[in-house]
Amino acid sequence: MCGIVGYIGKKQAAPVLIEGLYKLEYRGYDSVGIAVSDGEELRIVKRIGRVKEIECARRERGTVGIGHTRWATNGGVSVENAHPHSYKNIVLVHNGIIENAEKLKYDLLAKGEKFYSETDSEVIAHLIADAYSGDLLGAVMRACSQLTGSYALAVFSTDEPRMLVCARMHSPLIVGKAKEGLVVASDIPAVAEKDARLYTLNDGEFAKLEGDELLFFSAAGRRIGKDTIEFDLNEGCVEWNGRHFMRKEIDEIPKVLQASRLEIENDSCFSDFYKVLCQTEYIQIVACGTAYHSGLCLKSAMERICRVPTEVCIASEYRYSDPIVAKGTLLIAISQSGETADTIAAVRLAKKRGAYVAAVVNVRYSSLTRLADVVLYTQAGREVAVAATKSFNAQLIALYSIAETVASVKGVKAPSLTGLARKAAETIAISETVRSWTPYFVGAKSAYFIGRGADMCAALEGSLKLKEISYLPSEGYAAGELKHGTLALIEPYTPVVAIITRRDIAQKTMNAVREAYSRGAVIFLVTCFKEFCDEKEVTASVLIPKCPPDYSPILSVIPLQLLAYYTSVARGNDPDKPRNLAKSVTVE
Ligand code: M6R
User: Fold this and answer.
1) Where are the alpha helices (DSSP H) in 252-340?
2) pLDDT in tens, 512-527
3) Which of 386, 418, 450 is the last residue of a domain?
């Protein structure tokens, strides 16, 4: 949610900021802006839209600057609400939500101060300006002490134009020394370069970047030291000349599954994780969105194979549900980004209540990795498209590996996970046929995805994918539940996608298919059983390779990801950057 970047050094700041913003665009892309200063004059350029809209600002002169790409929270999408915000001598960019902004603004208005935007961020600029008396760091510290909520800030003062001050509370921030200057950003790739020394700021900490000196301060204002973080320069390399990242990322699934198995076999972290898992009698999972669906898939496998009771909670519900954390609970937090605010808050609460926390995360050094007792990294590599695809499959193979290991400790025979990479490649090849299904979806009013057991988990994910990038209302449903209400929504030509990968309950799902077909639905089938493809109710089908039914979402989701992709493209959308969404959801 919002990307921030800052630079102070020998080079011209504007090109550095714009390049950094391109790498942060996944965090939000409704408006964008930079502010640069050459010590004399301050220039602010803000536009609605994506980073390319401020290409014209590259030539603005100044060796200090800050930039922002926005995902609107407080205040609509407008140039006024775009960052940077300035008040008197203070200019800032902010990522997060200030929960007491209304109250603070009320007090500032009563003092006669004027506001030009609807944002909570502008309130912070006022607080800092009011607290400023020649010491920017002190003013930022005093202003932050009045804030409730989340923030990552990069601030400069036109009175001290050789200095940037940064602060962090529940929103990620990286600060560092590059070859020719000091840098700050929401995420590593925006500032990573060879030999750069990068540091993460923790909640409540501040950084002062001045000349070529980088100083860190605790919440109490004491100087603190920090260890550099390691980073992989290639992680930021996401240049690609193809049409859409989402399509490329689906194609990478076999490679990701292969890498995941190798990592699991070789990584000592996994064995630590397994030791804990093997002693656990009860598992709670917290996650959001696609990661929540991965959690549902693990529950299904863990309970059916290992008989370990497993509860899956939507993180935003868990954090306010006064959850029971029984002694010996293992909490598994699943997150691609490792920065999802709701998941992080759920983890904090569970830890406070005594849970042992294992994080299944894709992004290194993300906030969740620092909170967890043990981290299991998924091997998806960098995922650029907002819609999660390969990261879901990477989560599944990591989670199923856990179930496989628990089973072996319990002396239960678990199905084998081998060969899934090859089968995923076959599935991608076969599923290309879903492109021919798109005419049925493009003009539809709504669509439904149904299945039972693990197939229902795949149905939920298929439905989320479709609505997220095609903007077509869609529901994922337990096949047996359709007749309890939702069947009323089926009209002639309503597309219904059924997923059938478990022999013992296949006919039960087919009952729901027939009920929908009788009401005029057009039925599409994803299955590993040839005979169902030939049923008269089925308009079109994808026959995926057979795999153990408890693991089947790893394959059955692929045609659904492709269906969402092709429908999105056919509806004229940008599947990589769906409206109103961002890749990393760092606010509540
Ligand atoms: O980074 P996380 O895995 O924690 O993100 C959770 C959700 O925001 C995310 O999975 C979202 O639902 C996806 N964009 C869906 O494709």
Assistant:
1) 253-266, 268-279, 289-301, 315-318
2) 999 999 999 999 999 9
3) 418
